[in-house]
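Could you help me review a protein record that somebody else here produced? Here is the record exactly as it was handed to me:
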Amino acid sequence: MNNLNTYATLPRGRVAIVHRTCYEVISENGIFQCELTGNMMFGKSDFELPCTGDWVIFQPFDENKGIIVDMLPRERTLYRKKVGTVAAKQTIAAHVDKAFIVQSLDGNFNLRRVERFMIQILEENIKPVLVLNKADLGFDRREVEEALKHSACRMPVFFTSIHHPETILRLRESIKEGETVVFVGSSGVGKSSLINALSEKSVLLTSDVSQSTGKGRHTSTRREMLLLDGSGILIDTPGVREFGLAIDNPDSLAEMLDISDYAESCRFKDCTHTNEPGCAVLEAINNGILDIEVYKSYMKLRREAWHFSTSEHEKRKKDKTFSKLVDEVKKRKENR
């Protein structure tokens, strides 16, 4: 990161949309179409490049064009594991206050997927909110609430339908002025339709419901930031089929899934909760206190997080070794 004082006279703005190598930046002086400096483009890894929600410093030129010269330090950034990689991160949005995990009350509803989103969101100190959309469809509310009882203590739950305006109003009232809210979820859950309903106007394209599947066709192809009149800032994201954890500390999972109280009572401090004698976690399952499905989810996610953190650690070691090698080569050249 360059010294920010160097650019003290340049304007700041926030990235609203990323178009491959072009960035739409909102500032006090309007919207600018910006590109990156060569140093930024080639000197950063993919997840370090500006993303939707990032605050940047840019040099304006011509009418509504500019060059991004630096970024302000990131806070509360939502990541996921990049698809097809061992430990690479993909940035979803930066400077986020809340994340709306959107699921629809049809075949899309998946409790394990909810846990996966919730854990990554909590890891980044972002407040998770579960939005169960398409509540006009037939579903057993009591059954859904029973299934969510161990997750509901971690986040508020809203039942919404664009056909029931009062449910949209309650969701809108939960967004405070100035808050940034990112919408995440699978394709077809109605994220864009929800944002349109919250905005009380069509700001995002949506598709008709597919006759063959009964679901809305996925339309969001990019992350896009929108201002909600008199309220907060919304970030729409494309639907994801896979949401891999990008967590450096697998031990944090126990607390997030309410297993830590049992784990702390295990006979051995390094208990893996698989077959050790005196394992309080396994005892809680046998006594019907701990849901076996929550336990299975915890074990699966812990393995995934451990694999990511181990690979990330190895990658950092290799990067450090390579950097030392580069420094040694430079010193040799200087001493010639």
Observations:
- DSSP finds ten helices and 13 strands in the chain.
- The longest strand covers residues 12-19.
- Residues 18 and 146 are 40 Å apart (CA to CA).
